Amino acid sequence: MHAWPASDVPALPGKGRDLKIHDTATGGPVSLDPGPVARIYVCGITPYDATHMGHAATYNAFDLVQRVWLDTKRQVHYVQNVTDVDDPLLERAIRDGQDWTELAERETALFREDMTALRMLPPQHYIGAVESIPGIVPLVERLRDKGAAYELEGDVYFSVEADPHFGEVSGLDADAMRLLSAERGGDPDRPGKKNPLDPMLWMAAREGEPSWDGASLGRGRPGWHIECVAIALDHLGMGFDVQGGGSDLAFPHHEMGASHAQALTGEHPFAKAYVHAGMVGLDGEKMSKSRGNLVFVSKVRRDGVDPAAIRLALHSHHYRSDWEWTDQVLADAVERLARWRAAVSRPDGPSADALVEEIREALANDLDTPSALRAVDRWAAFQQSDGGTQEGAPGVVSRAVDALLGVAL
Predict the structure, then answer these.
(1) Distance, CA of 25 to CA of 273 (rounded, Å)
(2) Can you tell me the distance from the alpha carbon of 262 to that of 158, in angstroms, rounded to the nearest whole number?
(3) In a 3-state reduction of DSSP, which class is residue 238?
(4) pLDDT per residue over 378-396, tens digit each?
(5) Could you name the CATH architecture of 305-405?
(6) Domain 20-286 class?
(7) In the 3-class helix/strand/coil scheme, how is 287-311 assigned residue by residue?
């Protein structure tokens, strides 16, 4: 599966700062110091509907992580998946009378268009669940052979007790986990499971649903969590720098994925930091496909809104916060973009050196985009009121905003 085209990232003078970011597993900030190549895995979409602002906010956060690392002169190895076979996709295809593969391909293509328009840096490896099945099957077999998995009426489940570190990613107690498991795709009440929290690794073929050859597992399809584990281990290995996604993935998805990988390899941790973006709401509730309270990126673009303004709207809230999408949020971003573009349209202006360092410092401090925006606002206001005499300063500002915030002025 191919990703989307990369936009150029301007090189800036000097060198950026190392990233300090909030780690869900420890509950506090961690200073990331990757080697020459930083490794990041971000969980991708289940393509049964268009990209909404909640998706965009999540991918915006991890785009910034890449940009901070690139500014430190590191290379970035970024991997993202597409869950192109799963219950929600199959259910939507049946509801709408569509072929599930055509639905997945169409929505994945639209996601690529949205990411391109928003200037999100693409992953080096963009991998679908279906194409990963040949690599998933041996992992499930290994877990079964190690005693970390068991069969139940043809399905194969992972035993959470096989990983002594289970629970360390989310930090939740068993009761909270059970509630979230029921809400987020698990089946804690199924009779015969060793532990209600045990997640499915391989679902035996169901009538009328797609299935694949699972060798000794029989025909079926993979569970949700093992998909990402197989892709991450194949392309990044254990101990990569950041596992990323929305806050609703901390449990069960990232918790279970970490335990799968740790039980497979005997190594810990799966990722050095687990980083989660907050939820975007609309009309008082989390924006989600199941609720249908969505603002689609493609629809806002079709309405004539500059994608750069959409990114500024996302930047105006800290990535870890839960916030509400409103018409005013977008209007403020459109107005801010106009002010910034007017400010950089002159040949000279106030010195840009301090501003570049302010943006770098803000982003290195847990991706503090609101502080970064305020810094550019101050520079733009000074440019409008007093101007400046440093020739080429507006160009430096324009390149810095592009390189570090992904906003083309």
Answers:
(1) 7
(2) 12
(3) coil
(4) 999 999 888 777 889 999 9
(5) Up-down Bundle (1.20)
(6) alpha beta
(7) CCCCCCCCCEHHHHHHCCCCHHHHH
Nearest to 138 by CA among 217, 54, 34: 217
**First CA to last CA across the chain, in angstroms?**
31
User: Which SS3 state, helix, strand or coil, does residue 166 take?
Assistant: coil
- Does residue 35 contact residue 239 with C-beta atoms inside 8 Å? no
Q: How far apart are CA 58 and CA 81, in angstroms?
A: 14
Question: Is the CB of residue 249 less than 8 Å from the CB of residue 23?
Answer: no
Q: What is the pLDDT of residue 395?
A: 96
Following CA atoms 172, 174, 278, 239 in sequence, which dihedral angle do they give, to the nearest 10 degrees?
A: 60
Query: 111 and 69 in contact (C-beta within 8 Å)?
Result: no
156-196 tens-digit pLDDT: 999 999 999 999 999 999 999 999 999 999 999 999 999 99
Residue 385: CB atoms within 10 A of its CB come to 7
Distance CA 48, CA 308 (A): 26
Helical ranges in 244-392 per DSSP H: 255-265, 297-302, 307-315, 327-343, 353-364, 369-385
Domain ranges across the chain: 20-286, 305-405
* Average confidence score pLDDT of the chain: 96
Flag whether pLDDT at 235 surpasses 90. yes
In the structure encoding, which two tokens stand for residue 335, read together? 């107005």
Q: Are 340 and 376 in contact (CB under 8 A)?
A: yes
Contacts of 12 (CB under 8 A, 6+ apart): 71, 356, 396, 399, 400, 403, 404
Q: Above 70 in pLDDT, residue 281?
A: yes
- In terms of C-beta density within 10 A (0-12 exposed, 13-18 middle, 19 or more buried), how is residue 187 classed? middle
Handedness of CA 201, 59, 35, 126 (dihedral sign): positive
Q: Which of 248-262, 286-300, 302-316 comes out lowest in average pLDDT?
A: 286-300
Q: Residue 77: left if φ>0, alpha if ψ -120 to 50, beta else—which one? A: beta
